Predict the 3D structure of the following.
Amino acid sequence: MSEATKEAHARPDTRARIQAVALELFAEQGYDKTSLREIAERLDVTKAALYYHFKSKEDIVASLVEDYFGQIDELVAWGRTLPKTPESRAEVLRRYFDIVAGGSGVFRMLQHNQASVNSMAAAKHRSELFRERMDALVSLLTEPDAPLASQLRAAVALASVSFGCMFYADRAEDPAHLRATVLDIAFGLTGAQD
Amino acid sequence: MSEATKEAHARPDTRARIQAVALELFAEQGYDKTSLREIAERLDVTKAALYYHFKSKEDIVASLVEDYFGQIDELVAWGRTLPKTPESRAEVLRRYFDIVAGGSGVFRMLQHNQASVNSMAAAKHRSELFRERMDALVSLLTEPDAPLASQLRAAVALASVSFGCMFYADRAEDPAHLRATVLDIAFGLTGAQD
DNA sequence: GTCTATAGACGGATAGAC
DNA sequence: GTCTATCCGTCTATAGAC
């Protein structure tokens, strides 16, 4: 670490800590109900400090969402390099599960704050962006020009993965068992194969 | 109509009109971003008038949610009178679809405002209430003491109905076709039969 | 990089007249 | 049943010292 970065009261990872706390509170109690004051208090800093790292409250969310969409986009890019075999579909679904489940929790946050996030200036037309990702993932799981029924099955498979791992995560005694069960359902819907 | 109800500037259906406008705005732009001032302006009344009909902003949501949960509870009660045949499961899923799709739009509103609604005082532990309904519906679609996999399939079927009719409602050229397709998927997941 | 202090706006809710 | 007027709280965001 260079001398230049050792400034008074400097904590080097403040930006990341802000992201972590904000994510937790946004997911837990909602974006609108979480004030910058509350975030600052948890970190033992002041609101003004937050504004040094992020230009606005929305900007914190934007930074979080960028990370999440980045993961999805990587998955899509990777999936496009694959042949469309049942095995590769299975692998796409597995990776999607891991992003949603093991991931940063950004998905859960987005799920709980759809209305707030959708009406953000910085992320204008964000429900469209969400759709684009969804469609991209669907295209990995279907033949080109597949009929509505096939597309819907793929979309439902993806939704099931998200839903299953969010709604049943705290009920299944064995996480691995839940994962296997959820993926088995998704495989069945898309013709994927282990 | 009695003379007593004919008061100055009285519009008889104000309460219902408030509910309708509030529902639309809450679903569209979110509960927190919708102020009572905005609702009042749309109706050409004042905020104070709203407080005559509802004791608080939350109370408006509560009145909406009551109606929706009432429909689900009716479905559950009716479903419990049925034998557990593939045909009756299909009928439960069909009715559930119609509640979500044709319904008042309350489901969409709840979906978009999970965080706000979950942290309401009047509806404390409302995610639990939501779960209770979900579990009740699942029990209509599974044998008693069914293994996790079966319960999950039923839950996914219900989620698929909700998801399918919300996410694809404006894409399918033919609503009846969408309905048939979605239900076909749900039937497959639960062993229901037409 | 973090602080104190404050501006500036808006929201929910109530009181009391009509 | 609806209105005007107002109280009081909270929030985002900024200015400027250290």
